[in-house]
Amino acid sequence: MRRHLTQELHNFIERGRDRQLRLAVTGLSRAGKTAFLTSLVHQLRHAGLEARLDLLRAAREGRLLGAQRVAQPDLGVPRFPYDAAMASLDGTPPHWPAPTRGISELRLTIKHRTRRARGLLGDTATLTLDLIDYPGEWLLDLPLLEHDFLSWSEAQQTTMGSERQRLAATWLSAAETLAPDDEADEGQLAEIASHYADALRASREAGFADLQPGRFLLPGDLEDAPVLQFFPLPGVREANRAELDALPETSVYKTLARRFDHYRRHVVKPFYRDHFRRFDRQIVLVDVLGALNAGPERFEDLSRALSTLMRSFDYGKRSLMSRLFSPRIDRLAIAATKADHVTPEQHPNVVALLESLLAEPLKDLRYADVPVKALSLAAVRATEPREVDNDGQRRPALRGTTLEGEDVLLFPGDVPSRLPEHDFWARQGFDFTAFRPPHRDTPELPHVRMDAALDWLIGDKLK
Ligand code: GDP
């Protein structure tokens, strides 16, 4: 009797401790965050019914009873537009949901049965899961915290290669007319800043990802705010620091430096302090296949952007993150999205490629003892794997409907398992087609390994 009571008490405390989890989803634009979160909510809401979630242990054991949306706690954060996203997927024809642009949130309560010894089902328990979606671009701003305006301006000049300079020509020619000691003219600075934002957007359109400041691309609620009216000043050098520091407060240099500082203190820091620091778990989505499709320059740029982005998860003792904040993320997943763009036997290569793309950050994470898992998934599986007969040989293929509505059967190519050499694109290349979301007759939303992602991210809280 006594033992029984102690066990009951233990369960109670355990459940109390595990009642809540904040799971954040991020990735650069078009990585697949909106599709992922929509599918995740759908899968959990249909758990125990139509959803196929065999790789999620609690579901496999028949202990997952379902999930409900409830009012979120943060009234200042927009709600993740789940209904609108589902309406797009359920449209005729089905189409992809409009991507979210800033931070948004949704709270689910998940009902499950606890596990008892020998596979017996225990009591009913509830896990409150807060899902937070935010742009990966915002994480590209972390390094700004170790810069001041001068060192940042200098660093930007070195990272801007020839193609990006070409895309930034209008901004560059206007900014080069400015001398650091000119008297600042508000209107002129606002105009040049808008050219800078245009240049960043053009670079992003061209497939570049390593772009700062992140909020210029996805301003969220800061659209048109003066705090975003700055840009790196071409030509300033560390060697001239003393002279520049002595300039009057009304000079171009000092005005831009003040805005840069304001951005760091009032935009970058608060995101980490008020949101990031409170995440328990995180999944970072990466469109590896998209970058592979876009060619060598974009692929290298993605690799640079990801190393910057991943610094926010480096909790080594001397890391910038640990020095400034005390993050509590205790488990991380890195996922290559849209795996349904390639045939299933290529999926292990997709994961291997993702791991080599993130080799350095993953090494740091493992060293800092942050549990991390790499996987490939499709939030919404838009294709069906098939086999075709090719000169008497069975070959894997995909069947799907293009965005234009054409039914196709194709083989998109082999995915390299390591970072490709420059000549990969000339030699072999890779060509994937974008597909329309699947037409469905049942509530089930087909996916690839969403259940594996869920098992890693929340499975231990569903025991
Ligand atoms: P976000 O900007 O990170 O929110 O990205 P989205 O979720 O809007 O995804 C960008 C685009 O990628 C979508 O419009 C789809 O075309 C495509 N996409 C996203 N997830 C999947 C998936 O699981 N399968 C397929 N085939 N395409 C996807």
Please explain how this structure is put together.
With 463 residues, the protein is an alpha/beta fold. It contains 18 helices and 10 strands. It has helices spanning 2-17, 33-45, 57-60, 82-89, 149-159, 162-167, 169-175, 186-205, 214-217, 241-245, 252-275, 288-294, 296-310, 320-324, 347-357, 359-367, 424-427, 450-458, and strands at 20-27, 64-70, 104-115, 121-133, 281-286, 331-336, 372-376, 383-390, 393-401, 407-410. A 7-stranded mixed sheet has the order 2-3-4-1-5-6-7, sandwiched between helices. A hairpin with a 5-residue loop joins strand 3 (104-115) and strand 4 (121-133). Helix 7 runs antiparallel to helix 8 (186-205) and helix 12 (288-294) packs antiparallel against helix 13. The two termini are 24 Å apart. It binds guanosine-5'-diphosphate. Residues 27, 29-35, 96, 99-100, 337-338, 340-341, 378-380, 382, 434-435 line the site of guanosine-5'-diphosphate (GDP).
The helix count comes to 18
The helix fraction, in percent, is 25-40%
The N- to C-terminal Cα distance equals 24 Å
User: Which CATH class of the largest domain is shown?
Assistant: Alpha Beta
Report the portion of residues in β strands: 15-25%
**String of helices and strands:** HEHHEHEEHHHHHHHEHHHEHHEEEEHH
- From the alpha-carbon coordinates, what is the Rg to the nearest angstrom? 24 Å
Oligomer: single chain
Structure classification: alpha/beta
Ligands in the model, by name, code or SMILES, are: guanosine-5'-diphosphate
**What name does CATH use for the topology of the largest domain?**
Rossmann fold
CATH architecture of the largest domain: 3-Layer(aba) Sandwich
